[in-house]
Amino acid sequence: MQTSRLFENKVRSLSGLKNTIARLKAGGKRIVFTNGCFDILHYGHIQYLQEAAKKGDILIVAVNSDSSVRRIKGKKRPIIKEAERLRTVAALESVDYAVLFKEDTPLKLIKSLKPDVLVKGADWKKGDIVGGDIVTACGGRVSTIKVTKGRSTSNLIKKIAKRF
User: Fold this and answer.
1) How many whole angstroms from its chain centre is CA 105?
2) What does the pLDDT look like over 137-149, one tens digit per residue?
3) Cα–Cα dist 67/69, whole Å
4) Backbone angles phi, psi at 152, to 5 degrees
5) Angle at 132 between CA 59 and CA 113, to 5 degrees
6) Element (H or E) spanning 97, and its range?
7) Do 133 and 109 touch, CB atoms closer than 8 A?
8) Going by DSSP bridges, is the β-strand pair 58-64/31-36 parallel, antiparallel, or unpaired?
């Protein structure tokens, strides 16, 4: 029961998260932000989030809503519903807070939270990372993390489909 309450406290709304982040920043904490669908959480995700957490003091992970995943990945996705994906991400030790967003990009969250470090996988060009301009204009930085080759939810789904 105690573990359940611990990760439930890590799931926040934007307004609740905004207040928490303001307090943490005032205390000198460096805020790291990343986002993704996190549909069928796998080892590549775990490695990525652990590396992202090393870029600062507090890691916020924004998780795409079901409707946004469908728009981005297609009508057969997500496999796992948003509430479960959000709670699963929040349960990870490397994640301090998780927040759901309904838009196709986390731009609204980035504008509102103004993280110190914005992180994406190295498969993204820094200039193409949504919100990078906002973060750098506020004195922050954009960072990329090497992705684990061959590890993606899409590849995992294809592999599973071939077996059945």
Assistant:
1) 11
2) 999 999 999 876 6
3) 5
4) -150, 155
5) 45
6) strand 97-101
7) no
8) parallel
Candidates 10, 5, 4, 72; CA nearest to 38 is 72
Phi/psi of residue 83, nearest 5 degrees: -60, -40
Q: What is the pLDDT of residue 7?
A: 65
**Which residue in 55, 54, 72, 76 sits closest to 63, CA to CA?**
72
Q: For 111-141, what is each residue's pLDDT tens digit?
A: 999 999 999 988 888 888 999 999 999 999 9
Both tokens of 144, joined, read: 């990329």
- Is the distance from CB of 49 to CB of 35 less than 8 angstroms? no
Of 110, 127, 132, 123, residue with least CA distance to 152: 123
Q: What amino acid is encoded at 17 in this protein? A: L
**Dist. CA 14–CA 128, nearest whole Å:** 24
pTM of model > 0.85: yes
Element (H or E) spanning 118, and its range? strand 117-121
User: CB–CB of 79/43 below 8 Å?
Assistant: no
**pLDDT given for residue 151 in this prediction:** 64
pLDDT tens sequence across 24-81: 999 999 999 999 999 988 888 999 999 999 999 999 999 999 999 999 999 999 999 9
